[in-house]
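Consider the following input, taken from an annotated entry for LysR family transcriptional regulator (Photobacterium alginatilyticum).
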Amino acid sequence: MDFSSRLLLLLEVVELGSFTKVSEQRNVDRSVISKHISRLEDELGVRLLNRTTRSLSLTAAGSEMVNQARSLRTLLNDTHRLAQNYHAEPKGVLRITSSTLFGRQYVQQAVEVFQQQYPDVDIELRLEDRVVDMVREGFDIGFRIGKPKNSSLIIRKIARNRLLIVASPKFIQKYGEINTVQQLESLPATAYAAPGLLIDKFRYLDDNNESKHFQLKVAYKVNDVEMVTKSAVAGNTLAVVTAQMIDNEILEGKLVPIMTQLHLDDFGTFYAVYPHRDAPIKTKLFIETLRAIVGDDVPIWEKHIPNFQKLYGRVG
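Applying the prediction step yields:
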């Protein structure tokens, strides 16, 4: 490991917070990481980290070196990225992160098409329902619902993602037709939940065009969006879902859109996000591949819901 690599290793230790986490990520012994950091300190002639049995903290010199390491990482990434733009055909590794369901439904399709067209590109796809740090974790593209809070990221719209309320015929037979917000709020529902997050409130416009919200009576919380839909199919609960979460359940009569007169807000928009405006050609081509699969004005998932463009206060 040369000096530059050790400097980047220091940055990794600081960002992950411990030698142990870095050793686990790199699949090497912790003592190897400690040895390289000590070697870096010897080369620079200054202490960079204050070590205790329980924690690490940066010295003043260490803070300055970490800033230099960040600049070095940016320079190296930019250099590789610019070089890739001169390739006649895309090549190298493309690292992608996506929410789980969207990744299974559409990103995987795009991977299959893309690798047939560009076999010299190796792809790593990470599916997880958290917002990753694109730069720190080294991803080329991320697919997310909603605009990222990090304004330094470049965004491209993929497709809208609208809400609907669904219940099974069995549920409707048990509870009767659901025509009012009061009824809706009184019936058992399934909601997506994760640590620190419960999606059980939704906005709508009332008859006076004023923004209001309804709150579900949550009988089942689950941290997997596919389970939200499956729970509604089972007939014990209703659910508020996005159009993207629907496969053929409505076409097959397993679910029915309810309260379709309610003017619902959209849930959000799918975006592709990437760290640099002059992204490598492989990044741009993959986004175009995905957009061809998803569709432009009307995303493919809305075609699974008959007459959806006129439901929930919409006209197109």
